[in-house]
C-alpha cells in the first residue's frame, strides 16, 4: 500500500520538501507519496490529531505550526521536548510521535560540507533569536561548544533562549556582535536578514579568524550577501540549502524505512529549482 506523507503549514506553497522527498522516493524505488497540505494554525491541532484518519503515515510541519504540532504529540523525542516544537511527525501503533530535526540538519550539513569545522569548539556566534536559532543554539551546545554567544536586536529574546540552556549560552545585543567576532570559530545567521525581499545582513567580518566558518540558514537566495562577503574574504561558507536537505533525512527514514543519502545530485535538483525561480543570488 502506498505510504502517504505531506508537508503542512501556512503558507505551504513555497516549501521545497516535496521536491526533496520525491527525489528520494524515486531514487530508492519506494511506493510512497509526499504531498502538500495548507493547514492554517486555527485548524492545526485537529489536523495533526487526525493524521491517521486522513490516511497519512506522518508529516512535516513548517511555520507557523511547529509549536502547535508539539502540543498535540503523544510522544516527543528529546529534541522536540527541549525546544517545545516539532517539524517531523509519525505514527507508532496509533500514537502520534514527533521530533525536531532542524538542529540535526544544521550539524549534519556542517559535518558533511566543512569537515573539521568543530575542531576548536570554543565559541559560536549566533545571530537572531527566533525558532530556528533556538534549535541551532541547542545543537551547538550538544556538539560541545564551550560558549554560544547569541546576539539579537531584541535582547530579551536572546535572554529567554539563554535562560533555557544554561550558562554556556550568553545573550548579547545585536550591535555588539563584532565585539566577540575575533574569538568565533563559527558565525551563524539565523535572522531573516539577507532573505529575498528583506534587507541584507551587513556585518563587518574583518575580525573573524581566517579559519572561521560562516553559515547562513537563509537559502532564498542561496548566495546571501553575508555568504558572498565571507567568501570574498576567503572564509569557508555553508549555505542554508544543505540544512534543509539534511533535516529531511530522519523523517524519510521513519516513514519509508530507508535512510536516504544527501548527494551532490540531489543538491543540484534543488539548485535547478532555485535557478528556475531566479533565487540563486540576491
Ligand atoms: P524564526 O523563523 O527563526 O522563528 P523569527 O522569529 O521571525 O524567525 O525571527 C527572525 C529573527 O531575525 C529575529 O531574531 C529578529 O530579531 P528580533 O527578535 O529583534 O525581531 C531578526 N531580525 C529581523 N529583522 C532584523 C533587523 N532588521 N535587524 C536585526 N535583526 C533582525
Salient structural properties:
single chain, 282 residues, alpha/beta, six-stranded mixed beta sheet, six-stranded parallel beta sheet, 11 helices, 37% helix, globular, binds 2'-monophosphoadenosine-5'-diphosphate
Task: Summarize, please.
This protein has helices at residues 17-27, 41-49, 66-71, 78-83, 102-113, 131-142, 155-165, 225-232, 241-247, 249-256, 264-276; strands at 3-9, 32-38, 58-61, 75-76, 88-92, 95-99, 123-127, 147-152, 169-173, 186-189, 213-216, 236-238. It is of the alpha/beta class.
Largest sheet, in brief, is:
6 strands, mixed
Bound ions, cofactors and other small molecules, one mention each: 2'-monophosphoadenosine-5'-diphosphate
- Straight-line N-to-C gap: 44 Å
- How do the strands of the widest beta sheet line up side by side? 2-1-3-5-6-4
Order of helices and strands: EHEHEHEHEEHEHEHEEEHEHHH
The chain-level mean pLDDT equals: 97
Which residues form runs of ≥5 with pLDDT under 50?
none
Query: Helix/strand/pairing class, anyone?
Result: alpha/beta
Strand count: 12
Proportion of residues in helical segments:
25-40%
Amino acid at each position: 500500500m502506498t505510504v502517504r506523507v505531506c508537508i503542512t503549514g501556512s503558507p505551504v506553497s513555497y516549501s521545497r520538501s516535496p521536491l526533496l522527498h520525491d527525489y528520494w522516493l524515486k531514487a530508492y524505488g519506494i511506493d510512497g507519496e509526499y504531498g502538500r497540505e495548507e493547514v492554517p494554525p486555527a485548524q492545526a491541532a485537529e489536523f495533526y490529531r487526525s493524521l491517521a484518519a486522513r490516511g497519512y503515515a506522518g508529516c512535516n510541519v513548517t511555520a507557523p505550526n511547529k509549536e502547535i504540532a508539539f502540543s498535540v504529540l503523544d510522544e516527543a523525542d528529546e529534541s522536540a521536548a527541549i525546544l517545545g516544537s516539532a517539524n517531523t511527525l509519525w505514527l507508532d501503533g496509533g500514537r502520534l510521535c514527533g521530533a525536531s530535526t532542524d538542529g540535526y540538519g544544521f550539524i549534519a550539513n556542517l559535518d558533511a560540507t566543512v569537515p573539521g569545522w568543530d575542531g576548536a569548539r570554543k565559541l559560536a556566534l549566533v545571530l537572531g533569536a527566533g525558532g530556528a536559532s533556538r534549535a541551532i543554539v541547542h545543537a551547538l551546545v550538544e556538539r560541545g561548544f564551550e560558549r554560544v554567544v547569541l546576539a539579537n536586536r531584541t535582547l530579551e529574546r536572546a535572554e529567554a533562549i539563554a535562560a533555557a540552556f544554561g550558562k554556556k549560552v550568553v545573550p548579547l545585543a545585536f550591535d555588539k556582535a563584532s565585539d566577540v567576532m575575533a574569538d568565533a570559530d563559527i558565525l551563524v545567521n539565523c535572522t531573516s536578514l539577507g532573505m529575498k525581499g528583506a534587507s541584507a545582513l551587513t556585518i563587518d567580518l574583518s575580525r573573524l579568524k581566517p579559519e572561521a566558518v560562516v553559515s547562513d540558514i537563509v537559502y532564498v537566495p542561496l548566495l546571501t550577501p553575508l555568504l558572498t562577503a565571507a567568501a570574498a574574504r576567503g572564509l569557508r561558507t555553508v549555505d542554508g540549502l544543505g540544512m534543509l536537505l539534511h533535516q529531511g533525512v530522519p523523517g524519510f527514514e521513519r516513514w519509508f524505512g530507508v535512510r536516504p543519502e544527501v548527494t551532490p545530485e540531489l543538491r543540484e535538483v534543488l539548485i535547478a529549482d532555485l535557478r528556475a525561480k531566479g533565487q540563486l543570488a540576491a
